[in-house]
Specification:
Elements: H1 6-26, H2 30-49, H3 51-66, H4 72-101, H5 125-131, H6 137-142, H7 146-163, H8 168-189, H9 192-206, H10 216-240, H11 246-263, H12 266-279, H13 285-298, H14 301-318, H15 325-337, H16 349-359, H17 364-369, H18 373-398, H19 404-408
Helix pairs in contact: 1-2, 1-9, 1-11, 2-9, 3-7, 3-8, 3-13, 4-10, 4-13, 4-14, 4-15, 4-18, 10-14, 10-18, 11-12, 11-18, 12-13, 12-18, 13-18, 14-15, 14-16, 14-18, 15-16
């Protein structure tokens, strides 16, 4: 396999998975479907196993690194503003497509059996805001509540900076754990071609494309909306604001986008996203160690902007609820401000529930879309991860923290495991370079 690049290995895994999925579905080969399901399930479980320690230590180290980055507050502010601004563009695409396609008109599926999902503690603004602060630290890790883990990591990182020299052993420990987790995660990511075959094969064998028929217009809207963001919005932002060739960006970023497509998890893809952002896109490592984890939990243009906008219009039309200009503005507000509620995990049900409850639309509408959610989640997550790399590139360019030589060099191979993680205070431009 070393004869093939990592990107080509992922493509081969995708092709093999598609073929095996069609064979399993067409021939009703139960054992093959079960095998593909288990392979994909094990791969995702391995990725998620390392999510809590990875996010926790990465946030602590990144907060500590920011104290040595000139203009850290400005960098953080710019990143947040670009996250919000690009999300606003994405939700505008979603609302525009919804008004153009009218995805819920003429839909004949019955709403009698639709049920609201059981999302106690996650479906309202109050639940979201109070859910950021954990009531039990252990539960935050065992239930993989990424938003709470980010909160804990940020608080401890800030506290370590305030304590000063006495916190050095704690930061050194966090650094060591981060290096161990990154090394182990890279071993898991090397299994991505096999995991890709299992995940895409399972999706085709289990769902096929039959489920898309009654919801074809809505499904097409989601894919078209994500394609517009990927192929129009992001390239324009890169070219105009970042002065970066979109072709160069996508050539270098492709492995992370592809893994996001099949894994359906922004957080699970985060180790590869960070490595690509620094080693292929040339973003300063200290800044990337903050921006990528932050983006993996809050930058969700696919799941939190395009999808809920289209879904809200779809549900309103199916249930015969008229929407006015104020409702569309509310959709945009919820999508931009509430994107952190998706927390980078598989699926966008929480965000959709938040949107529908804010608009006063029937939550049973979520149940109508659950069947096709896995198919739609692939393109949504790919869009999420692409945006999580676009913004750091733009901000790094504006702050002089983008390495042109790395960005424009031939894509670096991702076959070898990354070297040690950055030591706080030492990154590109410091005493010695450090890998992601």
């Amino acid at each position: 396999m070393k004869k093939f690049s990592f990107s080509l290995q992922l493509l081969l895994g995708l092709a093999v998975g598609i073929v095996l999925g069609f064979i399993a579905r067409a021939g009703d080969v139960a054992w093959l479907t079960a095998t593909l399901t288990e392979v994909g399930k094990i791969f995702v479980q391995l990725l998620k196993l390392a999510v809590p320690p990875l996010v926790f230590t990465a946030v602590i180290v990144s907060v500590a690194n920011l104290r040595n980055v000139n203009g850290a507050a400005r960098l953080a502010g710019k990143t947040l503003l670009w996250f919000l601004g690009s999300s606003l563009i994405a939700v505008a695409f979603g609302i525009g497509l919804g008004l153009l396609l009218n995805p819920g008109q003429g839909v004949t599926i019955s709403t009698a059996g639709a049920k609201a999902p059981d999302l106690e503690g996650a479906g309202t603004w109050v639940d979201f805001l109070t859910g950021i602060i954990p009531t039990n630290i252990v539960t935050s890790f065992t239930e993989v509540n990424v938003l709470q883990i980010v909160f804990l990591g940020a608080v401890l990182g800030a506290a370590a900076i305030a304590v000063g020299e006495k916190a050095k052993p704690f930061l050194d420990l966090g650094q060591s754990v981060l290096e161990l987790v990154q090394k182990a995660l890279w071993w898991i990511i090397r299994l991505a071609p096999i995991g890709t075959a299992g995940l895409i094969g399972k999706s085709i064998a289990t769902y096929g494309w039959d489920l898309l028929a009654p919801l074809a217009k809505f499904s097409a809207g989601v894919y078209i909306g994500c394609a517009l963001v990927l192929l129009v919005s992001y390239p324009l932002l890169l070219a105009l604001a970042g002065k970066v060739s979109p072709l160069t960006f996508y050539r270098n970023a492709w492995p992370a986008i592809e893994l996001a497509f099949v894994s359906r998890s922004s957080v699970g893809t985060m180790p590869l996203t960070q490595r690509v952002t620094t080693e292929r896109l040339g973003v300063d490592r200290d800044y990337a160690s903050f921006a990528v984890p932050f983006g993996a939990t809050t930058k969700m243009d696919g799941c939190a902007a395009i999808y809920p906008a289209l879904a809200a219009i779809f549900v309103a039309q199916v249930f015969g609820v008229p929407l006015g200009v104020g409702d569309y503005l509310l959709i945009a507000f919820v999508s931009v401000v509430g994107s952190a509620a998706t927390a980078g995990l598989t699926g966008a049900i929480v965000m959709l529930t938040l949107t529908l409850s804010t608009l006063g639309l029937p939550l049973e509408g979520v149940g109508l879309l659950l069947a096709i959610d896995p198919i739609l989640d692939m393109i949504r997550t790919a869009t999420n991860v692409a945006g999580q790399m676009v913004v750091p590139v733009i901000v790094a360019r504006s702050e002089g923290r983008l390495d042109e030589a790395v960005l424009n060099a031939p894509p670096q191979p991702l076959d070898e495991a990354p070297a040690s993680a950055p030591t706080p205070g030492r990154g590109r431009g410091g005493a010695e370079p450090v890998p992601a």
